[in-house]
Design a protein that fits this description.
single chain, mainly alpha, 7 helices, 2 strands, 71% helix, globular
């Protein structure tokens, strides 16, 4: 049986959809994949709303961007799926779901357990992002990229900031979960 989404849950999903969109524009320029706060808000969606609602909020963000709203870091529109960085957006949805599901199943949430869930979400986001980037560049838009440049630009240069965001999200989630649980 499918559980209906309550108006409170819809509101929280919408809130994280908006936060993710705002996070796309709070960026620090780095080569290839811009460093934004999208990752922070997608992980927070999973941590605070759970896997299903977290993925729903991030999925709505992706849908709005594909429909043409300029909510992605570099615009929006259906053809955004041909941008090599779109794999990270797919990773955000799956990573938010996984992070949320992991923390939903844990009995006692500690900072370390939340951080571990975030690191798994980070691995999913980067795994999806890098595979998609490689496939789009090499087989769709005919701008080949080798494995070393891919690893350098799409992981080594970008991951330090997102590792910091994993720690930040774990600390925020530890403090905010009781308040969000009260709302739902």
């Amino acid at each position: 049986m499918r559980k209906r989404i309550t108006p409170k849950e819809m509101t929280l999903c919408a809130l994280f959809t908006v936060l993710t969109a705002v996070g796309a524009f709070l960026k620090i320029p780095v080569p290839v994949v811009p460093f934004t706060l999208q990752f922070l808000f997608t992980m927070m969606a999973g941590l605070l709303l759970g896997g299903r609602l977290g993925a729903c909020s991030v999925g709505l963000y992706a849908l709005l961007g594909l429909m043409g709203l300029p909510v992605f870091a570099e615009g929006g529109g259906f053809w955004y799926i041909l941008k090599p960085s779109f794999g990270y957006i797919i990773g955000f949805i799956i990573g938010s779901y996984a992070t949320g599901r992991i923390t939903e199943r844990l009995q006692r949430l500690t900072f370390g357990k939340i951080l571990a869930a975030n690191l798994i979400g980070l691995a999913i986001v980067y795994g999806m992002g890098m595979v998609y980037y490689y496939l789009i560049c090499n087989f769709v838009i005919d701008t080949p990229i080798g494995l070393w440049p891919l690893f350098l630009y799409c992981f080594l240069l970008a991951v330090p900031g997102d590792l910091f965001l994993c720690f930040l999200a774990a600390g925020l989630a530890k403090r905010l979960r009781p308040a969000v649980a009260y709302l739902t």
